[in-house]
Amino acid sequence: MNKYIISILFSLSTFAVAQNALSDQEKKEGWQLLFDGKSLEHWRNFKKETISPKWIVKEGAMVKTKGGGDIVTKKKYQNFDLKLDWKIAIAGNSGIFILANETVADKKIYTRAPEIQILDNEKHSDRKSASHRSGSLYDMIAAPDSSQKPAGEWNTLRVLFDNRHLQVWQNGVVAFDVKLGSEAWKKALNGSKFKNWPGFADAFSGHIGVQEHGADVSLRNIKIKPLPATAAAESAPVIELK
Questions:
Q1: For the chain, what percentages of helix, strand and coil (3-state, to nearest 5) are there?
Q2: Which residues are within 8 A (CB) of 188 and not within 5 positions of it... i.e. 6 or more apart?
Q3: Using CA atoms, how far apart are residues 116 and 169, in angstroms rounded to an integer?
Q4: Which end of the chain is more exposed for a tag (fewer CB within 10 A), N or C?
């Protein structure tokens, strides 16, 4: 084989396995790793100081095994650009939360935090509702079928949250686009089970979270770029954790 072809193939192979790392360009743009393929140091269980040993690192992925519990980032974020890859087990269910908080009012991670759904759309019983399938804003806005892949395959997810504007792409397809507090948001909220949940999605900032829902879920290439805070949030009262 021609030595130049060998060189190209080697370069492509090296690029393909460069998981859980930031490129020089990403570093310049302000991206940060939330998982480096080795450590879970940026995460802890919801309302806990540490992370369960049932969350493990396996083959370059952060994996929740049964009983691992909901987890959150140690840091809070207000405006951000988040990217990650996820893979769900057969008949599995999980989700990515934003604006998760841990006050007395936040009894569960989902009490006031919106969720981007992760699901086996073919095997899990929750598949019957379109807004419960992967990539959807759970129970509020359905992601298109073209954004979804079968269980066992890696999916890419991008969550851009800036000044209450929430945009999500799954596998390169727009999953949904809505501004919290807008008429479209109010309509989706009023048609959901969260309609009468006090303070749902009202927080100015919060943790990124991952849901425990039985079956194993794997995540990798978790990267976040914090964006400038808004003046409204900077002047908001600080709520102490209890």
A1: 15, 35, 50
A2: 137, 140, 141, 178
A3: 10
A4: N
pLDDT value at 78 more than 70: yes
Quote the strand ranges of the chain, DSSP E.
32-33, 43-45, 55-58, 61-64, 71-73, 79-88, 93-100, 115-119, 155-162, 165-170, 173-179, 207-210, 217-227
185-241, pLDDT tens digit by residue? Answer: 999 999 999 999 999 999 999 999 999 887 789 999 999 999 998 765 554 444 433
- Which one, of 89, 129, 93, 122, lies nearest residue 110 by Cα? 93
Residues 6+ apart with CB under 8 A from 167: 159, 160, 161, 174, 176, 177
The CATH-assigned architecture of domain 34-216 is Sandwich (2.60)
